[in-house]
Amino acid sequence: MPLDYLVSALVTLLVVVDPIGLAPTFLAVTHGLPAKTRKRVALRASAIAGAVLIGTALVGDWLLRQLGIGVSAFRIAGGLLLFLVAYEMVLGVRIDRQSKQAEEALEEHVRNIAAFPLAIPLMAGPGAITATLLLAGQAANRPLSLAVLLGVIVAVTAACLLVFLLASRIERLLGTTGNVVLSRLLGVILAALAVQYVIDGVRAALVVRF
Predict the structure, then answer these.
(1) Cα(16)–Cα(27) distance, rounded to whole angstroms?
(2) pLDDT tens digits, 13-31
(3) Which of 70, 142, 153, 200 counts the highest number of beta carbons within 10 A?
(4) How many C-beta atoms surround the C-beta of residue 166 within 10 A?
């Protein structure tokens, strides 16, 4: 039934992507950026993540089979890259670098942080890609179910965008000291999440191999 599939897909992707849980991370990686620039980051990140997940739903399984790449490889690669971001957040390197950037380089910086780490791997990460692949497999040979899945992806990324746009209000409530503490704390949490991605990827690869 399309309704059952709709509920299943919506709950699965909301839990995996966790839009509300991404708000503190969004604040941390966009710390120091003007409000208008932060809005552009939110729009671009949501668009990129939506495009990645829609592409995954349409051709992801076929592409992985053609390239001989397993989902575990996504987990390991995403974890390693995310750890680099966490390292910079804990030491304050990211904030220092942002404050020294020239105005003409701002647009390139916006594109960079919107694509990584916000869109990939935080929004459209290994978990979301895996969930989308599984849901797309359930919708195989059922165009209506596939259309439902694409609609769910759009809805979830729109929810992320809404949360990002409201995140600035949270930042104003925290103040400067609160934002610095939050950035360091989230860096530690992101580091743990990155390590968990790698562990899950290695475990999955070993299970498949043996």
Answers:
(1) 20
(2) 987 888 887 888 888 888 7
(3) 153
(4) 11
